[in-house]
Structures are given as structure tokens and as C-alpha cells.
């Protein structure tokens, strides 16, 4: 079976190697791109409905925990910058099954994210072209981004740089424009600010609604850990990865908490509609129609950007799994430019499923994909927390100091694990999310069966 599953970390590679073509500016924007996507621009509709103005707290709490998890991953990635980092670290410090589970779960998670983003592309295109089939928009995006990723890693990085730049400029502009609208009357204390505590109060559905919203909010942060996947292709990872990760917390404060604060102040939370993006609708309601078209372009760019990163990360994860012997050697093949072409084509091909789903179930699948992807993301984050605990224990036993230490170890690990358990619990309390929670143990069982079959073949 070695023909299909090579030996772990020992199979000879008589082929091109991956290139370190991602520069510091690429990594900075990739870190931002992973944090700004459909979960914020479109998925925020459901979180606003659950929590009202207190959705700001939901993003803040979730963001702090994600920052802690990013620091854990960053410590391992700086110490050992490899492609497909999740699987490699879990396998080395925890065991073969956690390595297998984390790698294939992350790949599956990003397949779901890819499907959600392709669905969102169709939704945003319908804002301009109501009669355009969603499946057609999804197909055009899939083919274009797949072709881009087949070129080289620099092409991916450059495209992500510019798409992330568009998102950042738009959010900053939106916040400034929103503040301008709030203070347009010339009053030092704008009347609109009362929207933050009127219409049922700051916590219209109580603490319970806030905690349920926090569970949904976590989808917005899915993908932010992509910075760890880039370690194997980053120039000077010792410097660029810590810089990118340390900036995550203030980005969360500005892009998530700041944006929600402006949106909730501009318009009563219970009047935010569910068509297109809440960003687009609110700007239409305050009489800025041109801004609505600009913002629709931005949210479309955001969806394409996250799909771009999904194709990139999935191909690298399959490559990393193949190097560990946990995926077929078929995925070890690199192009002359160091691109895992087969991983890209297989990952992209599987997301074609969503094109069919959009044909038969247009308008109904986004929330389902979002919730299942959140469950898969929780598995990845739990794996990072536990693997980091074991990593630090190994380092202490060997007397080895790391260069980018996670703060407040091990308390942040414990806090993060408790928080993630709470996310699953509150997802189980929301009717629309219960199917995803039921899916979680079934998916873990599938992974375990797949692992046992792999061991028998090996």
C-alpha cells in the first residue's frame, strides 16, 4: 500500500518543492482576509436577530478566544514552520489519530466554507441581476479562482492581498461614513445612539440570546487560523507570522465590534432585513443608494476572497496529509512552480456539489453550510488547544524554549476549551443549528472509521 500512502515523514520526493513566495504584506492581508468574510457581511443577519445590539459583545468574546487560539498555533508555527501545520503538530505531539482527524476535518471544514462562499456569491450577484441563476455565478467563481491558484503561490498571495485591501478600505470607509451620518445633525450626542439600548434594550433576548448569538458568531472567525497553514510558504516566518497574529486582536475590535456598533446605532436592530447583506440594506435605508452598490461589490469580493483562501488551504492540507502518510501519495505531486495541483483540482471539484445544490435549493443552504462548518471549525480549534498543551509539555521536558510564547499558558488553553464546549452547547439550543450538532458525533465516527481502515491498509 506504500504506493498509495507513503511512509510518514520519510517518503522520498523526487519532485519540485514548495516555494516560499508569500511576503510579509501577503501574510498581513491573508490574516485579515481570513477574518473578514461572509460570516460578517451576510451571516451577521442571524446574529443580530438573536442578540440585538449586544451582538457587539458576542463578537468581542469570540474574538478574544480566537486570539488566544491563534497565539497557541503561532507558537508552534514559528517553532516548526511546515505546510499542513494542523495535522503535523497533532500527529507529532498528540498521536496518529489526532493528526489524521485534524487534517481531514480541516480539509472538510474548508470544503464546507467553500460551498458557503460560492452560495454567497450567487446571493450577491442577484442583488444586481435578480434573474441570474445562483448556480451560474457559483460556477464562474469556481473556475476562475481554481485557475488562479494553479499558477503559483505568489499569484494566490497577490490576489488575496488586493481583495483583502478592498475589504479593509470598505469597512473603514463604512465606519467613517456611518459616524458621519450619526453626527450629521451637529448634536454632540446623536439621537440615533438610542438604537443601542431602545427597542427592547441592549440585551433584547437576555443573556441567553447573547450566548446563542456567540455560537453563530464563531463562523465569522472560521479561517482566521489560515495564517498557520501559510508557514511552510512564508518568507522569514520567524518575523512575519508573529506580526500577523499579534494584530488580530485590534482587527477584531475595529472590523467586528466597531462595524456592529455603527450598524446598530444607524438603524433599529429589529428592522434590519434579511435580503442581501445588512450592510447594503442599512445604507439603502439611510438614503445612500450608491453606497449600497459599492458595498455589494465589497461583500462579493469578500466571498471570492474567502473561497480563494479555501482552495489554497485545502490543497496544502492534502499535501501535508500525504507527506504524513495519511492521504494518498497522489496528492504529493507538485507542479514546476511548487503548486500542489492535484489537491487544488480535487478540492475545487468537490465544491462543484454546491453548484448543484444552488440549482435545486437556491436560498436555503447557506445557513446549513454555515452551521456544519462551525462545528468542524470547533474541532480544529479544540485540536490546536490540546496539541499546544502537549507541545509545551514536550518543550519543558526537553528544556527547549520557544520564540513566540502563548500568553497565560495553560489557563488560556483551559478557558478556550470551556468556551468551545459552550459554543456546541448553545448551538444545540437553536433549532436551526441542532442538525449541525447532531452531525458532529457522526462526523467524528466517520473519521475514526476512516483512520482504522487506513491503519489496516498500512
TrEMBL record:
Its main location: membrane. This is Amino acid permease. Residues 26-457 form the Amino acid permease/ SLC12A domain. Belongs to the amino acid-polyamine-organocation (APC) superfamily. Amino acid transporter (AAT) (TC 2.A.3.1) family. The chain crosses the membrane at residues 27-44, 50-70, 106-129, 135-153, 165-186, 206-227, 248-267, 287-307, 343-361, 367-391, 411-429, 435-453. Keywords: Amino-acid transport, Cell inner membrane, Cell membrane, Membrane, Transmembrane, Transmembrane helix, Transport. GO terms for biological process: amino acid transport; transmembrane transport. It holds the Pfam family AA_permease. One of its GO terms (cellular component) is plasma membrane. It is a multi-pass membrane protein. It comes from the Bacteria. It comes from Selenomonas bovis. PROSITE patterns: AMINO_ACID_PERMEASE_1. It is found in: Cell inner membrane.
